[in-house]
Amino acid sequence: MDNDKREVAVYLSKFDVLDSDNDIIRRGAFTKSILERGPQANSNRKIAFLRHHDWEQQIGKWLKIEEDEKGLFAVGQLGNSTQGTDAWEDYKSEIIREHSIGFQYIQDKIRFVEDPNIMGGGFYEINEVKLYEGSAVTFGSNEFTNVVAVKSLEDKADQMSKVKTGIEKTIKALTTGNYSDERGYQLEMRLKYLNNQLILLAEAEPFDKEHSVKASEPKENGFDWGAVMNDLYAKI
Fold first, then answer.
1. pTM above 0.85, yes or no
2. Do 177 and 201 fall into the same domain?
3. Does residue 147 form part of some domain?
4. How many domains are contained in the chain?
5. Taking a C-beta distance cutoff of 8 angstroms, is the pair 23, 124 a contact?
6. 8 Å CB contact between 7 and 88
7. Fewer CB in a 10 Å sphere around the end CB: N or C, the chain?
8. Are both 84 and 129 inside the same structural domain?
């Protein structure tokens, strides 16, 4: 970290490591994206510096993105906006400690490698991707999971209503098909985020400080996601 310049040096991805999506990314996978959309590229659509893969939270810009022997190394500068300043303070407090990438697979640059020792029967070897953004996240292996707190049943219903409205609007935008690849990616990431928020809200119980000392056992997910999605699509 450089306090004077508000700059951070991070690894956005590691090579040759099996991740939570059963992907192993090989060195060279980001070369084309860096040339076409990196900080030194001529494109107006640079690889973005986000938080939680949310395109409404652009917290800064990447000054350097390059591959080395370990992975995808990057130097970013936090912006002077409220979101950028909040992120900078979280970096200084070590609240932000992990990073993740948002990308699109390229069909002929990915292959499935069978391995009976890996859950799922193998892994996907990724030799090239289209990189859209690098994000500061809470947990790199589960970047869409946020803490959800509700004060009452009324508050829970209100939050769920807002999230459902957001899902409806996002689905409508996706069904038009009238968008660039970048915009399509933004919408997909937004839908994933909102979907996860809705599930977490469905499971959330009103916060009771008196009974919050002892953690409760995890509950099985009885949320009927299919019914909710069918209801949302029926409205479009």
1. no
2. yes
3. no
4. 2
5. yes
6. no
7. C
8. yes
